[in-house]
Amino acid sequence: MSNFEVLYKDSSCSARHGLLITTHGKVETPVFMPVGTAGAVKGITPQQLKETGTDIILANTYHLMLRPGVDVVEKIGGLHKFMAWDQPILTDSGGYQIFSLSPLTKVDDAGVEFTSHIDGAKIYLDAETAIKIQNRLNADIIMCLDQCTPLPADEKQLKEAVERTIHWAKCSKKAHANTNQLLFAIVQGGINLQLRTYCASELVKLDFDGYAIGGLSVGEGHDNMIKVVTHTTQLLPENLPRYLMGVGTPADIIAAVRAGVDMFDCVLPTRNGRNAFAFTENGPLRLRNNAHIEDDRPIEKDCNCYCCKNFSRSTIRHFFNCGEMLGPILVSLHNLRFFQKLMAEIRLALKKKEFTVWSNEQLKKYQSFDPSTRLGSGLLKNNLSKITK
Amino acid sequence: MSNFEVLYKDSSCSARHGLLITTHGKVETPVFMPVGTAGAVKGITPQQLKETGTDIILANTYHLMLRPGVDVVEKIGGLHKFMAWDQPILTDSGGYQIFSLSPLTKVDDAGVEFTSHIDGAKIYLDAETAIKIQNRLNADIIMCLDQCTPLPADEKQLKEAVERTIHWAKCSKKAHANTNQLLFAIVQGGINLQLRTYCASELVKLDFDGYAIGGLSVGEGHDNMIKVVTHTTQLLPENLPRYLMGVGTPADIIAAVRAGVDMFDCVLPTRNGRNAFAFTENGPLRLRNNAHIEDDRPIEKDCNCYCCKNFSRSTIRHFFNCGEMLGPILVSLHNLRFFQKLMAEIRLALKKKEFTVWSNEQLKKYQSFDPSTRLGSGLLKNNLSKITK
Fold first, then answer.
1. Which residue in chain A has the smallest CA separation from B82?
2. Which of A11, A141, B16, B365 counts the highest number of beta carbons within 10 A?
3. Does ipTM come in above 0.85?
4. Which residue among B42, B72, B314 places its CB closest to the CB of A68?
């Protein structure tokens, strides 16, 4: 039996509505996966997370292998039990964190040596070990170790990273030993379309359960990102799930769905939420602003999230002003619901065969908000001191 | 119609089971009120709070008058709407915080000048103003301004504070103008029983809707506290609610119920929870300890709180180890449920006419845990740096 079924394909773009089948249940696509960094979506209980409409979450292998360690998670009964989440989980390979969080990284074809950002310990990871760890964590979907390149990267660097990513994918495929799990490979190649073609075609030969597009949302901008995504999705099997890693803003997501992407993950709803930044259909709201002091309206009219059904902007602003934990929690809940509603609207528009018209309108609207939205990527570099990671 | 009804009185001690009737609903007593310092029980949503079995909460007038200010709360529609809590609320008068949090306090018979602990602003509060603020916050039960004395205090100091508390109670009674609210007076007098007698008898003459015992749980110890409580409850009207402020540990609560107390509030479940300290029937658990690293058991076997139904000690320890917000939230939830279950057991033992036997056993057990329990009072002074307020 296949683990993915395309239920409907839009006639005028590459968007599709599908069903992803995992050991812990079925997930309708296109789907957004909130990020549960260290075994929790920050500050949000699994019960609250389900109430946002979340069906699948991502957990970071890198964070979990450092703390509490795979032995602990395995002894407790695997990641689902450890996190108290009984629906599907995807674990990333750790690659992105190794290359972005670690100050000292030595990489060769065999593997990568990096320094723990917690205690400075030197840790060695190769593709086999990354898979073995993920086999033991026992998420429903696991990822091959890949090499992410910084932006900009010269062609030699990019090419080397692509070759290594392909080599590691072969090792991963061989090492994978947990039949409860789907194994996805990651296409690298920066914004070089030829390298993307090469990487995708080599990986497709290896016959994975799904394919991810990595190395984007690192500062290349919306247009470059969508260009690479549009190019890459066409190289991937029609009948398998496609996952765009670490993306993105509402505009990024809508455009990538048009290009044929099925799965997304991003810290934006929660990271922005913790920083009093709320997503709305009318653009972003900054809840710390004085404008909200006496505002008895919810963050978003007619939103059915727990925050909007119960709390005024005034109260939320007050919570941030006092350092009360409920502030970050409530805005995270709203943002997660906002993203899940967006995905539900995308799926509905696809089912109703109205996606092209719908997405044109929505894309235009959300693109106009984008410059102020990316607390997580471009903006983060400039405002690190003001932002809680 | 009376606002309080004694449904059952124990035959061999002063404990009673009652019903407190407020504008926002009825509350069975003895009852425990979690503390919603600045408009929220820290980190806990109203929905989660209800699931712990909480029927009534306390909010701090002092904190709310400083931030966001009574104008804001009133404009949003009152405290219930502001906090998104549709069940009963009690606001304290601010007296305790003024005398404990403010570095500079000038007090005379007219009122008290204090320094905001937030921005150093000088603020003047008299009894009438304290009532007017509480009238506008619109909680269900409000408190007269009182003067708390530090421990130890000499007799002259204590006597002065008692006279002032009585005088302010008269002013409060006169100023009270919101008929939706019950007004309680506070008996002061430290551990001087004669002063407690004097204060109680003067306040009782003024005919309040209920009476609180203040100025305890400030370091006098369990035995002194219960001596004062036992003495004071006998001076208060049989048919009105009695509220022991800021108390306490499970042993304090059980002993005070035996002495005839109906209402309690305390930060212990939440403050201790935020510091990885869990209450259990078998004594305290410190969740940061290495002993819990691979422990797949819940905090407390058979506990029906959200935390125990879903999370292992291992995961909770991991959350504290990582600084993940869910750690403080989950242990706060467990502790709140623990306190609410204790109160439910007290009420059940009273209804079943088994309270004397039950309380003897329980008191003995919980008294043995007490020395390590008071993160909030005695211990707090020594370990302030280690403890999140």
1. A315
2. A141
3. yes
4. B314
